[in-house]
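Exercise: predict the structure of this protein bound to adenosine-5'-triphosphate.
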Amino acid sequence: MSTILLEIVTPDRLVYSEQVNSVTVRGVEGELGILPGHISFVTPLQIAPVYVKIGNERTPFAVQGGFVEVRKDKIVILAESAERAGEIDLERAEAAKERAETRLNAKGRQDEVDHRRAELALQRAMNRIKISN
Ligand code: ATP
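Solution:
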């Protein structure tokens, strides 16, 4: 089975760097399965799980938006934050989810920017909870 180098990078660290058989991401237009030899492209990502396959093993990552860049020699996922399942603090994600939900449910006039912010925080928290479980 052919492989390609996958790097998952955030501003803080290199989260992952391995030769993989395939990567599945959720781009802005939907799910994308990327195999070695794919044509080069760049596309923004949704806040969604990324699944990496090596042989029969499938490893999930929580990736909070960003971009995927597919090149001849490697695939780079660049995100504001990304975690492997084992790195996720479930209690923290559940607390973040609750905070975001409280903000979204708050009565009264709410700034549109604050609302959007809470929505994104909720998406990040739910993504982490999904991967952690
Ligand atoms: P919180 O409100 O809990 O800080 P957040 O979604 O605002 O969550 P981010 O700004 O996306 O957090 O991430 C900040 C840093 O904290 C990143 O390095 C990210 O990997 C890490 N991080 C955030 N939430 C968790 C979590 N539940 N478990 C492990 N690491 C986390």
